[in-house]
Amino acid sequence: MSTLAFYIHIPYCVRRCGYCDFNTYTPAELAISADLSVTSRSYIDLLLREIEFARETSTATTVPTIFFGGGTPTLMESQDLGRVIRAIGSRFDLDDRAEITIEANPDSVTKGKLAALREVGFNRISFGMQSAVTHVLASLDRTHNPENVVKATTWAREVGFQEVSVDLIYGTSGESMKDWERTVDTALALPISHISAYALIVENGTKLGAQVKRGEVIMPDDDQTADKYLLADEKFIAAGFNWYELSNWSKPGSECRHNIAYWNGDNWWGAGAGAHSHIDGRRFWNVKHPAAYAQKIGENKNPMHEQETLTAEEIRAEEIMLQIRLSTGLDRASLSQIQEQPLVGYLTTHHLQADAWANGRVVLSNSGRLIADRIVREILL
C-alpha cells in the first residue's frame, strides 16, 4: 500500500516576525483585504486544483497525515480549510486514523473558531507560543498576549482537540535563564500533549539578521543556549514528555506522525505557494509568490518551479542526517566500518547512549544532541 502525506501551505500572516524567513506575506505586501475572506476562498480554490493534479500524477492510495502550515493557516475560513480536507478524502483513501494538524497563532483563534476547525476534521493543533515572557516576545517581533496561549489551549481541549502542541523558541537576545525557565514551566502547566523547542537561528535576509549584522542585537553565546536545551529536556521528561526527536517531546502516543514521515524519508506532497514535495527520491517545489502560483494554476500549468532527483548516496546521507535526530537512532549495521569508526570516541565521551550501542543502535545522549551536526559530519566524511 502506497502512502502520501500532504503538507498544505498557507502563505499569509497579519505581520512578519523579525526572525522569520518562511515563505509568507502580509496583506499590506500583497495589497489585499486585511480580513482575507475573499483571499481565503480564492486561494483554497487553487489548492483544490493542485490536489487534483496530485491525484492525476501520484500512484499513492492512502493519506495518513495532513499538515496545514504557514504563515498562519487559521487566518483562512474554517469551512474553506475543510474543503481541502474533503478534497483529499475524495481523491485518496484518507486513513480512518489520519492525523490532521493545523498551526495557529494564539491571537488568531476564538473558541468558536476552534470548534469550527474541529468540526471540519482537524484533530491536532499546534500553537506558536514561543515564550511566556513579554520582553522576549517583543524581541522576536511576536505580538500575541502570553495569556492568550492559556485561553487558546484550554479552548482547544474543551472543543475536542485531543492533541494540542505548543512551539517554543529559546536563545533570543536578552532572554535570561530565568526567563526561559518561566517559559518552560508555563508551557508545562498548559493542557497539552506535545512540545517543540527550537534554538533561535539568525537567518540572512530577515529583519533580525540585519540587526545582528549591524551590531544592534547581540545573540547569546552557544554555552547558554545549550544550557537552556538541557534545562528544558530535564523538565519536559520530569513532566512525562518523552524526547522522540532532537527538538520534540510528547506524552506517550502523541508524537507528530506527519513530521516523523519527513524524518523517515517518506513521500509527501506539498500544495500551495512555495511548498516542497518529496516523491521516491525526487524533490520539487512550487513557485513562491502567491500571484505566480495563482497564474500557473489559472493557466492549468504545473505550479512546480524546480526539481532535483537525489542520487543513492544523497538519499543515504539524508537518512543518516534525519534519523540520527530520532530517539530510535541509526542501525549500526547500516553503517560502514569507516562510518562507524569515529563514533567510538563519542561513545567514550558519553555523547552516545551505551545501552543502545550494545543493542546495535546509534542513539544520541542528551549531551550528544547538542553536537548532532558535528557527529553527522564525521559519519559522512
Structure report:
The protein is an alpha/beta fold and 381 residues long. It folds into two domains: 259 residues, TIM Barrel, CATH 3.20.20; 68 residues, no CATH class. Helix content is 42%, strand content 20%. The strands form three sheets. A nine-stranded mixed sheet has the order 7-8-6-5-4-3-2-1-9, sandwiched between helices. A hairpin with a 2-residue loop joins strand 10 and strand 11.
Work out the count of structural domains. 2
As a percent range, the share of helical residues equals: 40-55%
Write down the Rg.
Answer: 21 Å
Cross-sheet strand order for the largest sheet: 7-8-6-5-4-3-2-1-9
Number of strands: 14
Q: What composes the largest sheet?
A: 9 strands, mixed
- At the fourth level of CATH, the homologous superfamily of the largest domain is Aldolase class I
